[in-house]
Amino acid sequence: MPLIEIKDLKKYFGAVKAVDGVSLSVASGETLGVVGESGSGKSTLARLILKLIEPTSGSIDYDGITDIRRQCQIVFQDPQTSLNPRIRIGEAIAEPMLIHKIENRVGELLEMVKLPAGYAKRYPHELSGGERQRVGIARALALNPQFLILDEPVSALDVTVQVEILKLLKQIKAELGLTYLFIAHDLTVIGYMCDRIAVMREGRIIELGSKKEIMSAPREAFTRQLIESSFII
């Protein structure tokens, strides 16, 4: 059984059909990519999975995930917007652990994302964009999640830093046995990271298949356009 099974999921905001009948599954241990243009419904889908918003209709089944708030976490596009500029990095990473009353392991998490332990005393503005994203990843890992949603985690970074962060995410996934849902608008980034790819447009999944199927022989003209507009890693 899949770790997460989504059936005919819909989320309407008035006349806007942000997610319109999405059905897909995420197997334990895989990286499923969701790719599409801005406004295609990708981030709304992520918020529905995390139960940050309620669906208009449809269902999401979680196999073996009993605590969505702890076992499902997210890494955002720009960590600067999710990091409090008034608190130090160590406090930001420790905050989820304090809330859920689990062991504080800030040093271990900083080491996992390849940052020196001394960074715990720094403030977000003292870090580069890539370093802040590493902090965002560390914070998402603080509660030992099973499932991680990566919502455009490298799109705000320059190409060299993108590659470093993507390699780090692959390494962490292998070490911790995580399951990823990777959201992006760039199909080449998705192809580098993912086992399967779902192409989303106007709230719907228009194409779903293995990385090889989607990247080598896309059925939809829209998917071909995404491939042509992507840069190569």
From TrEMBL:
Q: Which UniProt keywords apply?
A: ATP-binding, Nucleotide-binding, Transport
- According to the entry, every stretch annotated as the ABC transporter domain falls at 4-227
Query: What SUPFAM superfamilies does the record tag this protein with?
Result: P-loop containing nucleoside triphosphate hydrolases
Q: Which CDD domains match?
A: ABC_NikE_OppD_transporters
Single biological process term from Gene Ontology: transmembrane transport
InterPro entries documented for this protein: AAA+_ATPase (IPR003593), ABC_transp_ATP-bind (IPR050319), ABC_transporter-like_ATP-bd (IPR003439), ABC_transporter-like_CS (IPR017871), P-loop_NTPase (IPR027417)
Which PROSITE patterns does this entry report, sorted A to Z? ABC_TRANSPORTER_1, ABC_TRANSPORTER_2
A Gene Ontology molecular function term of the record: ATP binding
Designated name of the protein: ABC transporter domain-containing protein
